[in-house]
Amino acid sequence: MQEEEMKEGNEAASKGSEDIAENNSNAEASNEEQKESCECCENNDEDEISILKKRIEELENEVSDMKDKYMRAMAESENIRKRTAKEKIDGIKRANKGLLLSLINFMDNFERALKSFDNDETIKGSEYYKGVELIHKQFIDFLTDNGVSEIEALGEEFDPNLHEALTMLEVPDIDKEQVVEVYAKGYKLNDELLRTAKVVVGKPKKTE
Question: Residue 82 belongs to what H/E stretch?
Answer without folding.
Answer: helix 2-115
